[in-house]
């Protein structure tokens, strides 16, 4: 069983052999946080508490199998939200006398690809793009990762949300901008491609966000052109850095995961412009869910990377430290 409560989705899933989804229940909090234009941590943790038991009941009824182990996201994420899922998972592990497996949220996104692509194999280059994370990692073996580049400021998903607010679009910003962009001209405004020629593999989105702010204040461009030009710049940065990482690392395959991996323009351009095989989870597995945590937890269990009832969440748990139990 996989339990995901790192931010604003409550996900409970049952997965067999790390690859086969038997049940996958997700409760979204978008409607609750939309009036605030972003996630309110205290509200998020309360909503997890309200629905986690009911989602678990539904997942168990749907899967109708014996549970061998319970995995839960232990970080990174919002501390209050993490505590809800981890404590619930440890209670189940204690009551059922089953192993408890701590899972890194980003590692869960990595393993989401194994739920849909049987032909994915190690090693691979990974691009993780979400509301809280933008990074490139070399993944040589399960639970052994080398960070190649990360964001210096805003994550790409966070930038989408902030720009959507500037354009008076609803939360979450990614789907809103994607819906509006086709009505605009992506070449109408030449927004900056932050750190595209920096010589390293780090990302920066704060300058792009600021450029959109100034463009909206000018009042000379329509909303659709702003959305289209912003989206083009944001995706350009991802493609530029990924191409650079492929050249530097000699990677033979690319895995792309995280909420922003659901963006249609990004998916189209990756498949058209990347010369090595690209593996992207289906849309339903791009957003946070329990199935990805169960898949990663299955592998961690097989590699004897379990926790115990003293395991606590770590909001800033580094991806490069996942080879050791989170204690």
Overall pLDDT metric? 96
Structural class estimated from helices and strands: alpha/beta
How would you sum up the global shape?
globular
- CATH-assigned homologous superfamily of the largest domain: ATPase, nucleotide binding domain
Instruction: Please provide the count of β strands.
Output: 10
Distance between the termini: 20 Å
Give the strand order, joined by hyphens, for the main sheet. 3-2-1-4-5
C-alpha-based Rg, rounded: 19 Å
What percent of residues adopt helix (DSSP H or I)?
40-55%
Strand content: 15-25%
What is the succession of H and E elements? EEEHHEHEHEEEHHHHEHEHH
Q: List the uncertain runs.
A: none
* Helix run count: 11
Structure description:
- The longest helix is centred in the C-terminal third of the chain and has 27 residues, at 223-249.
- The protein folds into 2 domains: 2-111 and 285-321, ATPase, nucleotide binding domain (Nucleotidyltransferase, domain 5, 2-Layer Sandwich); 121-280, Nucleotidyltransferase, domain 5.
- With 327 residues, it is α/β, with parallel strands linked by helices.
- The model has no long low-confidence stretch (mean pLDDT 96).
- The two termini are 20 Å apart.
- A 5-stranded mixed sheet has the order 3-2-1-4-5, with helices on both faces. Strands 8-7-6-9-10 form a 5-stranded mixed sheet, with helices on both faces.
- It has helices at 30-33, 41-63, 79-96, 105-112, 156-166, 173-180, 206-218, 223-249, 264-273, 283-286, 290-302, and strands spanning 2-4, 9-16, 20-28, 70-75, 100-104, 124-129, 134-141, 144-150, 254-257, 278-279.
